Structure to design on (461 residues):
């Protein structure tokens, strides 16, 4: 079915992007596809903050905090002032990272690029569910995700899997091969850390081939053995290495491996890299990613034809994510006029800020509301990331909280704004006569804007 340019421009901005800012739909109208294609670039997504501290500085800060806390505990004073101050600084770093991210989302003129980056950050979730990872989520996105989102998937997989944030989040940093030299030393000292399978399991189940690939527990264990030695340089390493990824040869489980029917020779660090290369090129991975992209951009149950198109694009380009983005834009299923995706709290708040022309400037205002709506900043409940399906976000209580926040935002931002014009700019050709009439008949400008934000057309994309 042919779609006129007005509607296509509205879909380009509100579905592929993060919601329309003033004039954005008009800007996209001439060539909606080209408007999106122009946002794909080899250097990846935009940085969230030009002066954000890198992961090395953050890991060193964390190591210092852990040493101070250990000293305080040994002295019998777990609430020592330096420890508490350091913990507050770490949490403040994480908060500043999240605020920088939402501010970028509220103002960017390349919102498809930003949405694409957010998809991959959720695919390779690192959650701030503990202090050790809270300070690293921002640098993880900045260093491991954003630079690689339009490159090859294999590079994105390796970058995310070797980043200190992921190594800490999934307990890989301390994983030791049972027959390694490090294990022998531990055994003589009466200590035992042993093998940790968390990262290997999540790479297979969530990041690459998916649960339908018919791999076995033995495959997970062998992959975990291949990954032993992937760690972070700590207090005992030379200063230039401290806080960086390091491969500990002495912790690596020696020997050849067989994983999903493929044989891998003993290559030290290269053994896990070889496994990742094959996982990245697997047809199972192509299908898993194609389905997730369709679910994110188009529908909770994406069209089979769209999944097939994306799967073919992935396999035929060796996982070129830039070309995969181009295939998404070229797929007719992605332009279906029916808005089938219900916005997550993050998407709803960002699109509301964009519609109202508001740029959030205080984390203490943003974070409690987002948490109340069920999407605590940087804190996905599990390595699976945030849910992509409507049933997890549209419960009655959640809708009431959206309404209360919409009314407050409208009161703060609508004093000199015509809600009818805001509605036209926010939805374009997706604005229905019923919503336009309701907005126009509102008793106040604030009421008109809140009606727009809570309309089914705005809540869906």
């Amino acid at each position: 079915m042919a779609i006129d340019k007005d509607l296509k421009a509205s879909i380009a901005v509100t579905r592929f992007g993060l919601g329309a800012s003033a004039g954005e739909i008009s800007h996209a109208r001439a060539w909606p596809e080209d408007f999106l294609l122009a946002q794909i670039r080899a250097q990846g997504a935009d940085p969230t903050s030009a002066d954000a501290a890198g992961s090395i500085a953050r890991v060193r800060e964390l190591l210092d905090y852990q040493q101070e806390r250990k000293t305080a505990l040994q002295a019998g004073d777990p609430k020592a002032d330096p420890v508490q101050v350091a913990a507050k600084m770490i949490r403040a770093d994480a908060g500043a990272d999240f605020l920088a991210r939402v501010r970028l989302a509220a103002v960017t003129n390349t919102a498809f690029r930003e949405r694409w980056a957010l998809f991959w950050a959720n695919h390779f979730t690192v959650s701030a569910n503990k202090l050790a990872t809270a300070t690293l989520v921002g640098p993880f996105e900045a260093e491991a995700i954003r630079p690689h989102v339009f490159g090859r998937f294999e590079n994105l997989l390796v970058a995310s899997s070797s980043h200190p944030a992921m190594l800490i989040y999934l307990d890989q940093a301390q994983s030791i091969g049972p027959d390694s030299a490090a294990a022998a030393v531990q055994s003589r000292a009466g200590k035992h850390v042993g093998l940790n399978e968390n990262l290997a399991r999540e790479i297979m189940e969530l990041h690459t081939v998916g649960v339908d690939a018919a791999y076995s527990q033995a495959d997970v264990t062998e992959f975990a053995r291949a990954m032993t030695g992937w760690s972070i340089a700590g207090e005992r390493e030379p200063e230039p290495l401290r806080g960086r990824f390091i491969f500990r040869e002495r912790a690596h489980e020696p020997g050849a491996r067989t994983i999903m029917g493929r044989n891998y020779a003993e290559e030290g660090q290269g053994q896990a890299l070889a496994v990742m290369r094959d996982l990245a090129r697997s047809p199972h991975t192509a299908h898993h990613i194609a389905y997730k992209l369709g679910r994110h951009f188009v529908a909770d149950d994406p069209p089979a034809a769209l999944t097939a198109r994306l799967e073919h694009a992935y396999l035929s380009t060796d996982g070129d994510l830039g070309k995969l983005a181009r295939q998404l834009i070229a797929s007719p299923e992605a332009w279906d006029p029916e808005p089938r995706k219900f916005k997550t709290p993050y998407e709803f708040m960002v699109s509301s800020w964009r519609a109202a022309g508001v740029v959030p400037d205080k984390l203490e205002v943003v974070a409690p509301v987002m948490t109340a709506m069920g999407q605590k900043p940087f804190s996905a409940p599990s390595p699976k990331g945030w849910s992509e399906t409507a049933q997890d976000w549209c419960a009655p209580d959640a809708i009431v909280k959206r309404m209360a926040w919409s009314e407050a935002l409208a009161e703060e931002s609508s004093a000199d704004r015509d809600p009818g014009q805001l509605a036209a700019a926010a939805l374009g050709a997706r604005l229905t006569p019923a919503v336009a009439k309701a907005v126009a008949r509102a008793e106040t400008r604030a009421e008109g804007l809140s009606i727009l934000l809570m309309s089914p057309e705005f809540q869906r994309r």
In short: The longest strand covers residues 230-232. DSSP finds 24 helices and four strands in the chain.
